Amino acid sequence: MSSRTALIGAVVSSLFALGACVSIPVDGPVTKARSDVGARQSATRFVPAGPVAGATKVDVVRGYMEAMLAYPVAWTTAQEFLTPSAQQRWDPDAATLVYSGFTVESEPASNTYWVRVDRVSRLDSLGRFAAVSGSERIELSLVNIDGEWRIDSPPQGALISHDFYLSHMQPFEVRFFNEAGTRLVSEPVHAVTGEKLATSLVNILGRGPHPQDVPWQRTFLSGSFARPGVVPLIDGVAHVTVDSPASGESQDDQDRASAQIISTLLNVPGITGVVISDADGVRVDTTDPDQSPEMWEQFDVGNNRAWIHAIAQDRVWRIDSTTPRPAPGYLSKSAGGAKNVSLSRNVTAATWESRGVKSDLNGDNAVAIEGQRFLPPVVDAADVAWFIDRPSAESRLRVVDSRVTSIGLQGIERVRAFDLSADGSRVAVVDQAGHVFIAPVIREAERVVRLGKLTRLSTVENRVTHAQWLTNSTILYIRRDAPRQLREARIDGSHSVSSWSALGRWLPNVTVERLVISPSTVPVVTILDSRHRVWVWGSGTWQLVSINKAHGLS
Fold it and tell me: Is the pLDDT score of 86 beyond 80?
């Protein structure tokens, strides 16, 4: 996190230095800039009052609504407005409805009341965001217990105001596993910041994705293995206590569960270490220099695709600084006229006028496909090569491992650009009209078999020319009518953005031919302009790379 903070700080400094010549964007929706509060507790405190003796039915309903806005989050006061049986049935973590306002309605001489809320968004049990609109009428029945009115039919989940959401909730990424259990994949969620954040995130990992809804994700913290309670944070170290492993549970599965916890929590600002314990003692302590990190890092993508490459002088170059160096592999000395190339640590994917080739770095185990008008290929986290070309009016997608698999694009006729997230779990596609679509990548035993539903990002306007993944839950994009402005969008459709796009969005005064971002911990943003020059963002400014007549940036 410190390197990313330094990068953002450099962006801020450069913008102050350039303030006299850079204009401020005034279009686009109002967004919430993501701060670094994370696990640190906000100074704000709100402890709502419980029910008072003799409270009216309206007072009880309003008090219940107010009690759900407690911060730090606590449900004990809200439960006081419920009957004893309702307290047992109510699950405030089942979902969260965010509203901009509410009114209480009733009928004369009736014990049934309704809360009419103006909906803004909804979070499911994992904290996954969905925008909603319109009003919703929520029915509450009240009963009299020992002379006091109490709610007997609370809706499952919590009801919070939009102000509470903006003040106390932020987006995070939790780590589940892919279907094969071989690689961590990220899921964007929203959670309340502060002292209970680590508890919330570990509980989300324990609840896990629903297999019927998300067949391409799974968790190893379900069942009896992990039923964590409160996760205390002591001097920045999260202490997670889990159940002892069930009989027959393999060490590999225990390591996978540890990997999920560690990878999720260490990405939270303010959390510097994780200790996982069970009844037998400490399992994992990331603060112990004698403990090897490989037990969880073996499941992470790492820097398999950490570099950007370009072709110049019929050779492939690695763009890891303003001074490029020859890339590894058989194309480093002669690209053989290749138009585009994408490299991972192990695989090369290249395209020519009428063919694409996926091979090992040294050129062995090559698989070739025929095609026309290829887009720049992408090698994903699993070393699968993705090729999209347009032999006719419609684009076609083919993925290549040891064989070629054609994948349907679900009605998108012409693809303008595409990119794979760093963890290989999702693809972003830009169509000819400039709309951006996101789809999960469905694999079986690491083989891509199809795409999940292609969902258009409603928060992204049309006329998009370039789109690339910035993180596993955000993309950067450029619009045709604002060619010098980098914009950021979250793939879940929420408007929260990081300070990277808010501060580092302005491009050099050039025509951008290609935007590429390295999918690493601190992403490197690079562009190729119409004069075949490569620019890289670094040290608070755009810098020219010392390479001439480049093409095929990827």
Answer: yes
